[in-house]
Amino acid sequence: MSYILQAKDLKKYYGKEPNLTKALDGVSLNIRQGEFVSIIGTSGSGKSTLLNMLGGLDNPTSGSVVIRGKEIERMNDEQLTVFRRRNIGFIFQDYNLVPVLNVYQNIILPIELDGNKVDREYIDRIIHFLHLEEKLSNLSSNLSGGQQQRVAIARALASKPAIILADEPTGNLDSKTSQDVLRLMKVTCKQFHQTLVMITHNPEIALMADRMIRIEDGRIVRESQTETSGGGR
Ligand SMILES: Nc1ncnc2c1ncn2[C@@H]1O[C@H](COP(=O)(O)OP(=O)(O)OP(=O)(O)O)[C@@H](O)[C@H]1O
């Protein structure tokens, strides 16, 4: 079985004894292409740290991350930046939109950075699903939190990356919008065989994944297939 994303005994320690924090303390994970995995756990359990490591945004203290067979620690900064842009779409808790660009420009930014052609029909579909039609020419800095979150989701989906890493992607949306957005993400991910790894506090949202991983004190304490796995996607 080949995996698209693997973590091998990942550890991330901050500080020194007696103030040592073991943000990640030996996490190993194998994720298949097209799989939708949710990561759930209390505040401070290590979820964001894990997602940052999986996306090559931070270096582990030890252990390794393998994406599409490549050990990302072996890449230099420039190689990693390009590799990330081509393979991974991020949805961050704080959105990371470019404030001086409008909504449409933000959405297509990763595509343009890579010099690729914009699939306008596909982008329009995402925009429609995320109810962003009316906002396309607004500066992203003038949007509400929930609107910015939807732009960040659209941007992550826009370039059809093989892997989407999402940190609380629906944290600012009401429960109905959250479920609608998650359904859209599931449909597009399935259509393009994308792999989705999502952090959430919300058990209902977590259960929409194929597999749910619970993390506590930097360790995986439970893994379970959900009822939606095995064909329900
Ligand atoms: N840069 C840092 N320096 C020191 N400690 C850190 C740093 N980043 C994270 N930590 C610590 O590592 C632990 C895990 O943090 P992390 O942000 O991964 O948790 P989380 O599960 O994502 O929390 P939340 O749900 O609140 O976002 C916490 O104890 C946190 O204080």
From TrEMBL:
SUPFAM superfamilies per record: P-loop containing nucleoside triphosphate hydrolases
GO molecular function, one term: ATP binding
InterPro entries: AAA+_ATPase, ABC_transporter-like_ATP-bd, ABC_transporter-like_CS, MacB-like_ATP-bd, P-loop_NTPase
Similarity annotation: Belongs to the ABC transporter superfamily.
Keyword Transport in annotation: yes
CDD domains membership: ABC_MJ0796_LolCDE_FtsE
Domain of life: Bacteria
Protein name: ABC transporter ATP-binding protein
Residue ranges constituting the ABC transporter domain according to the UniProt record: 5-233
Alphabetical UniProt keywords: ATP-binding, Nucleotide-binding, Transport
